Amino acid sequence: MRWEGQRFNGSTLVVNSHGALVYAQRNVAVGDIFELENVRTRVLCHCRVVWQAGLDQTGFFKLGVEMLESNPAVWGSDYTMALAQAQASPRGSAG
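The chain above was modelled as a monomer; its predicted structure follows.
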């Protein structure tokens, strides 16, 4: 992650095609925009903090973020494949 020109570590707890719940080493204010990078794939996206729970017992800040540009590929191939399968599968039918 990069915010105000400084890099810091974090990890995702929950991801979806619009954003994520993350643990971050730094507290980023609601409304602020930062750059999130998947260190495994090097895919980047810009995110806005939409919720924060402050510092928790792990020593990390819990942040809810939304991606400014939709880029589910940032989460990696496992997520991208699962998303494609979910969109292709038929919904339950009424019987």
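The chain has one domain: 2-85.
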